[in-house]
């Protein structure tokens, strides 16, 4: 990743992180604040319900008092005193209950027989379940919660009991209001809140016992665990219920009967929808703001990173150019100040110095090359010229000899001159050949065949009498196959390597030649067991005219490297002192 | 002073007696206002306009009406009726024996009817010992059909107008048993039961039809209650899917669980009779028997073991009949004790599927056979087919035949009688009559001798 991209990513990341943190902090803070308000609101409603419940109980007691004081109730009490047939009074409860707006009113004889029932008129003659018991077990003057049987179901009622003397017996007036949808609708609720009533009248917690003020009661399943917990613990509990349309904080209030059993659970729900909507609005505002901030941050990051990295990139480009050998580059127009400007100036100075140094070095190498060339030429030419001069001196002295002796010396001198001139011609030809290395003419060449033919040329030399034996080992990979190359040049290179290896083993040894094909290259290894090549020698091994041999021209390995390079190959040498050397060549397959 | 004291007391007593006598003395004039929603109102009205040869009295015995005497041969196959002389029709003409014979022929084409100077002879073509009772039925009223004009009768009133919701009758000036006291009768037929009670309390009506559940309320308001004999039957009729043999134990158990006595005594305020049979005892003359009670009912545990759909029943009741609804609610309470759950349905239109209906069936016939035929007609052919494949008895069928038919209908508890109820009316205190209650045991209105006292 480039510096610009890294810088852009870094700055952008910082901007994004900052914006996200700010947005989350604001949203979280707002949510907590609203949740606190919501909690206070729920608590207020619970308190309001308690007051309302107590007020309803007082209302029930008051209305039952009025019934007890009515003429109709007195007439019934007088009528049933000592009577066994209560039929005339079977319809008395209904108008009395209607007049006092009670949902429940039972007129009960002293033996517990229902004389008249407003909520279930057809139930006359049956035993009343709780009127007499409530009088003796609780304080009937105040309202209490009681399961009440209705024609279709059993419901919860907020009831009270009064008694009237009926002759020697008693007439019980048991009445009250049913805790039903109408009751819930009578509660005044702030917007966003609702009240549900669970009637705990079945052994199992069931959603069918849930009553809502609205027509459609909510799905009960999410509430059932909370209801079950309140029934079990007999104390208030709070839980946040997740509905499909948003969360709702539900306070559950146990409603106890006269014996302490939990007969119902009041569920005060504070819808989190408004809160969620507000928080969502804040969150989305934050997200919108954050998105804009991030966009602006990206733009600024891009501009800043571009401004900061442009001179650096120019410097990097100039450095790459220098590395590629293009030393004549300038970074004096980076258009910045400060450290980057200092860096650019330093780079400029450095490249200028490098160019100067290179020029001086080239000049020095050129001089050294010419000196080496002159030395080699002088060396190569001095050897053939010395016999020529001796021959010429012999000829000059032979003038005083007899004709026959002169002719013999003359012929011998002529032969020597011809040989010396031939040697000179050979030396000149070698230099000329190196200078005139032709461009390769490519064709399919079998590297194994080249190796075998080249080795065959040297077998006679290696087998010459008196020469220390050199064992030749060929490990030629049949899969090496052919390469695209100039056969003659390749053969020349291989022969130079073989000759070089044989020269390295004047005491005899082993010549090992290996070919192989792998990873898209054909490899040729030529190894000897000579004295090896020192590190200093290795560094100059392929330099033209460099040689360690007594009679070498120093062009052999230079020619090999030239051929390999012209075939887009690679050559290197591995050696350890005293353990021979191995030349490695790789050609593209 | 002491000498004048007896004189003073005598004068005061004489004055009080005069006032009392004046208040009790019949008054001519005025319009009697009746309100009822009874489906048989035209039958009651026609009974005032068109008389039968004989009528049944309060004890169920026959009394003369247009016929002063009657006599049958040994097998009761041929009957001779001596007609009352000088009976005037509504147009002032005298009723003639051929007119009587013709009217009877219209009702009974299979009878051989001949008329004499003052007699009419009927040959029923079969042994018919109960034929006079059959002739007491309103369906055998003497209706004279002139070649042109309205139908004529000889009753104390003539039908003056029949409008929607209002029937007007006018006193028959030439009535053979003296002119009625009131000049006219207005019968309103479309007032709701609640409105009828309000009209009576507001003195806008003099006699209104009421339900047994209203009796105590009206009595507390000092209105007089007039009732017929039990002439209607409340009966449970199970639907086809519950009328199977497999459900017989359910029906039997449910029938046995119903406390008919409480329904009659409390729900219907003692104005009904618990019914184990279709025909009331006064009509059949036999003690109630319960044909379907032979086997033991299911125990509550056995009911609880039944599938839910067999122990949960929908009971359909007419939405316009508060008495039926009250009875149904009590049946639901009783059924719950036996382990059944009964849901009372009172839909005004189409309702959910139901399993059993509580029907109110009238029994207008004067004979057991006719009454049972009425009951079977009221129940409908489909229900009768579920109960038992029997044919309605003839109006004059022997009582054994009638009881056999009734027994067949009740044998499998597809029909479960609940109570027999009378027709009930609340009557204003200013409505008075010197010869008996305004409503006869048969349900017919006795208005010829009624008058309206001063308000």
From the structure above, extract its key features.
heterodimer, A: alpha+beta, Beta-Lactamase, Helix Hairpins, 4 domains, 5-stranded antiparallel β-sheet, 13 helices, 17 strands, 51% helix, rod-shaped, B: 455 residues, alpha+beta, D-Maltodextrin-Binding Protein, domain 2, Dipeptide-binding Protein, domain 1, Dipeptide-binding Protein, domain 3, 3 domains, 11-stranded mixed β-sheet, 4-stranded antiparallel β-sheet, 15 helices, 24% strand
Structural features, described:
The complex is a heterodimer of chains A (589) and B (455). By secondary structure, chain A is α+β, with helices and mostly antiparallel strands. Chain A folds into 4 domains: 111 residues, 2-Layer Sandwich (Beta-Lactamase), CATH 3.30.450; 92 residues, Beta-Lactamase, CATH 3.30.450; 110 residues, Orthogonal Bundle (Helix Hairpins), CATH 1.10.287; 146 residues, 2-Layer Sandwich (Heat Shock Protein 90). Helix content of chain A is 51%, strand content 21%. Chain A contains 13 helices and 17 strands. In chain A, the strands form 4 sheets. Chain A has a 5-stranded antiparallel β-sheet with strand order 2-1-5-4-3, sandwiched between helices. Chain A has a 5-stranded antiparallel β-sheet with strand order 7-6-10-9-8, with helices on both faces. In chain A, strands 12-14-15-17-16 form a 5-stranded mixed β-sheet, covered by helices on one side. In chain A, a hairpin with a 4-residue loop joins strand 3 and strand 4. The longest helix of chain A has 66 residues. Chain B has 455 residues and is α+β, with helices and mostly antiparallel strands. Chain B has 3 domains: 117 residues, 3-Layer(aba) Sandwich (D-Maltodextrin-Binding Protein, domain 2), CATH 3.40.190.10; 90 residues, Dipeptide-binding Protein, Domain 1 (Dipeptide-binding Protein, domain 1), CATH 3.90.76; 193 residues, Dipeptide-binding Protein, domain 3 (Roll), CATH 3.10.105.10. Chain B is 31% helix and 24% strand. Chain B is built from 15 helices and 19 strands. In chain B, the strands form 4 sheets. In chain B, strands 1, 8, 9, 10, 11, 12, 13, 14, 15, 16 and 17 form an 11-stranded mixed β-sheet that branches. Chain B is globular, with a radius of gyration of 25 Å. The two termini of chain B are 39 Å apart. The mean pLDDT of chain B is 87. The interface between A and B is medium-sized, with 15 and 17 residues.
């Amino acid at each position: 990743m480039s510096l610009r991209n890294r810088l852009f990513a870094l700055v952008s990341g910082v901007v994004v992180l900052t914006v996200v943190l700010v947005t989350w902090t604001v949203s979280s803070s707002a949510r907590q604040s609203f949740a606190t308000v919501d909690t206070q609101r729920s608590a207020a409603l619970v308190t309001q319900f308690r007051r309302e419940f107590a007020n309803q109980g007082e209302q029930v007691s008051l209305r039952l008092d009025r019934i007890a004081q009515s003429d109709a109730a007195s007439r019934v009490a007088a009528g049933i005193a000592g009577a066994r047939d209560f039929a005339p009074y079977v319809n008395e409860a209904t108008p009395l209950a209607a007049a006092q707006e009670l949902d429940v009113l039972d007129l009960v004889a002293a033996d517990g027989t229902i004389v008249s029932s407003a909520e279930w008129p057809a139930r006359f003659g049956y035993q009343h379940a709780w009127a007499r018991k409530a009088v003796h077990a609780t304080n009937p003057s105040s309202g209490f919660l009681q399961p009440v049987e209705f024609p279709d179901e059993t419901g919860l009622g907020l009831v009270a009991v009064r008694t009237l003397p009926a002759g020697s017996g008693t007439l019980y007036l048991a009445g009250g209001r049913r805790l039903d949808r109408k009751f819930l609708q009578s509660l005044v609720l702030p917007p966003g809140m609702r009240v549900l009533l669970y009637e705990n009248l079945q052994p199992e917690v069931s959603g069918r016992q849930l009553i809502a003020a609205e027509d459609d009661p909510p799905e009960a399943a999410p509430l059932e665990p909370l209801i079950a917990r309140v029934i079990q613990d007999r104390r208030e509990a709070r839980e946040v219920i997740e509905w499909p349309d948003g969360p709702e904080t539900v306070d559950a209030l146990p409603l106890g009967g006269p014996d302490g059993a939990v007969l119902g659970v009041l569920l005060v729900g504070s819808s989190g929808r408004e809160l969620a909507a507000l928080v969502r609005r804040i969150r989305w505002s934050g997200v919108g703001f954050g998105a804009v901030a991030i966009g602006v941050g990206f733009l600024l990051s891009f501009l800043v990173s571009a401004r900061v990295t442009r001179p650096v990139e120019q410097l990097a480009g100039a450095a790459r150019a220098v590395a590629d050998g293009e030393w004549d580059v300038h970074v004096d127009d980076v258009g910045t100040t400060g450290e980057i400007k200092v860096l650019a100036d330093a780079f400029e100075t450095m490249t200028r110095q490098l160019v100067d140094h290179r020029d001086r070095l080239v000049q020095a190498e050129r001089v050294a090359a010419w000196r080496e060339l002159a030395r080699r030429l002088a060396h190569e030419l001095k050897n053939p010229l010395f016999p020529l001069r001796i021959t010429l001196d012999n000829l000059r002295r032979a003038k005083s000899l007899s004709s026959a002796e002169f002719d013999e010396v003359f012929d011998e001198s002529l032969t020597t001159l011809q040989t010396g001139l031939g040697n000179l011609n050979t030396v000149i030809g070698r230099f000329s050949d190196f200078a005139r290395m032709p461009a390769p003419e490519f064709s399919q060449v079998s590297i194994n065949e080249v190796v075998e033919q080249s080795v065959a040329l040297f077998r006679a030399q290696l087998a010459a009498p008196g020469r220390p034996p050199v064992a030749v080992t060929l490990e030629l990979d049949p899969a090496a196959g052919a390469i695209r190359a100039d056969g003659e040049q390749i053969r020349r290179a291989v022969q130079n390597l073989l000759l070089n290896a044989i020269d390295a083993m004047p005491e005899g040894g082993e010549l090992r030649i290996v070919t192989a094909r792998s990873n898209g290259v054909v490899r040729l290894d030529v190894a000897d067991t000579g004295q090896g090549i020192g590190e200093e020698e290795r560094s100059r091994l392929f330099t033209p005219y460099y040689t360690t041999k007594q009679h070498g021209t120093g062009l052999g390995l230079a020619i090999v490297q030239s051929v390999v390079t012209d075939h887009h190959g690679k050559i290197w040498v591995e050696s350890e002192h005293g353990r021979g050397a191995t030349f490695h060549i790789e050609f593209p397959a | 002073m002491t000498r004048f004291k007896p004189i003073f007391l005598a004068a005061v007593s004489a004055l009080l007696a005069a006032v009392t006598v004046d208040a009790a003395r019949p008054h001519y004039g005025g319009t009697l206002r009746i309100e009822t929603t009874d489906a048989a109102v035209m039958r009651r009205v026609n009974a005032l306009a068109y008389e039968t040869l004989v009528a049944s009295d309060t004890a169920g015995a026959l009394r003369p009406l247009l016929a002063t005497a009657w006599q049958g041969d040994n097998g009761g196959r041929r009957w001779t009726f001596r007609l009352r002389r000088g009976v005037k029709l509504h147009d002032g003409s005298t009723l003639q024996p051929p007119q009587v014979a013709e009217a009877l022929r219209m009702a009974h084409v299979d009878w051989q009817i001949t008329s004499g100077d003052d007699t009419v002879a009927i040959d029923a073509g079969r042994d018919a010992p109960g034929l006079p009772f059959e002739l007491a039925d309103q369906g055998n009223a003497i209706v004279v059909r002139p070649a042109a004009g309205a139908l004529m009768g000889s009753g104390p009133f003539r039908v003056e107008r029949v409008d929607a919701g209002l029937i007007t009758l006018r006193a028959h000036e030439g009535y053979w048993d003296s002119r009625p006291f009131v000049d006219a009768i207005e019968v309103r037929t479309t007032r709701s039961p609640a409105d009828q009670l309000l009209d009576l309390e507001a003195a806008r009506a003099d006699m209104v039809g009421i339900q047994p559940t209203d009796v105590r309320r009206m009595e507390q308001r000092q209105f007089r209650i007039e009732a017929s004999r039990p002439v209607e039957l409340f009966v449970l009729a199970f639907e086809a899917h519950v009328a199977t043999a497999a459900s017989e134990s359910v029906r039997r158990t449910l029938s046995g669980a119903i406390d008919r006595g409480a329904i009659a005594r409390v729900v219907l305020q003692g104005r009904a009779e618990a019914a184990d049979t279709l025909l009331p005892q006064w009509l059949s003359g036999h003690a109630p028997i319960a044909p379907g009670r032979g086997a033991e009912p299911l125990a509550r545990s056995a009911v609880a073991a039944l599938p839910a759909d067999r122990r949960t029943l929908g009971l359909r009741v007419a939405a316009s009949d508060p008495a039926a609804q009250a009875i149904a609610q009590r049946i639901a309470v009783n059924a719950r004790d036996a382990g059944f759950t009964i849901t009372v349905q009172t839909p005004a239109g189409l309702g959910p599927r139901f399993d059993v209906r509580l029907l109110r069936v009238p029994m207008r016939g004067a004979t057991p056979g006719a009454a049972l035929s009425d009951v079977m007609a009221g129940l409908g052919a489909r229900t009768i087919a579920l109960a038992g494949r029997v044919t309605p008895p003839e109006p004059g069928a022997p009582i054994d035949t009638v009881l056999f038919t009734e027994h067949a209908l009740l044998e499998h508890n597809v029909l479960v009688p609940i109570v027999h109820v009378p027709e009930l009316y609340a009557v204003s205190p200013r409505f008075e009559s010197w010869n008996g209650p305004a409503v006869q045991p048969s349900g017919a209105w006795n208005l010829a001798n009624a008058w309206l006292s001063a308000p």
